Amino acid sequence: QVEFVESGGGLVEPGGSLRLSCVVSRSIFSIGIMGWYRQVPGSQREWVATVSTGHLKDYVESVKGRFIITRDNSKNTVYLQMTNLKPEDTGVYYCNGVERPTTPKFDSWGQGTQVTVSS
User: Fold this and answer.
1) pLDDT tens digits, residue range 68-118?
2) Nearest to residue 76, comparing CAs of 11, 21, 37, 118?
3) Phi/psi at 102 (nearest 5 deg)?
4) CA–CA gap between residue 18 and residue 85 (Å, rounded)
5) Nearest CA to 23 among 66, 79, 105?
6) β partners of residue 5
7) Is the dihedral of CA 100, 101, 103, 106 positive or negative?
């Protein structure tokens, strides 16, 4: 069993920035690829970004150049630095392990952290 605790969300104006954190209850090095997902009401949860154990990164096209995913294996924590936020980035953000290419590895999810981009 694995648990995820996401934090760092909030209300920001368009163009603003946020840094999300996800603390994982077990070794993220042993999990492997880690990722962020987001969900808006009425829509499926969508993949946003992944980072491998070797720090290789990939992003959904809509966030490339604006978001950066990182990981700290020593802290079992995954981060998502979000800049130049847009209203369409609004949603609840979750982290999880990732099975290539973008499938969540675990059925369990954390509570997520709400990101709202609005003026």
Assistant:
1) 999 999 999 999 999 999 999 999 999 999 998 999 999 999 999 999 999
2) 21
3) -145, 15
4) 8
5) 79
6) 23
7) positive
Task: Report how far residue 80's alpha carbon sits from residue 110's, in angstroms, rounded to the nearest whole number.
Answer: 16
Reading the block at residue 59, the tokens are 């992003």
Helix (H) and strand (E) counts for the chain? 1, 11
Q: CA 74 to CA 50: how far, in whole Å?
A: 18
Closest CA to 47 of 36, 32, 61, 57: 36
Please write the tens of the pLDDT for every residue from 2-59: 999 999 999 999 999 999 999 999 999 999 999 999 999 899 999 999 999 999 999 9
DSSP string, 68-109: EEEEEGGGTEEEEEE-S--GGG-EEEEEEEEETTTEES-S--
Residue with tokens 């946003």: 48
Distance in angstroms (rounded) separating the CA atoms of residues 15 and 114: 17
SS3 54: coil
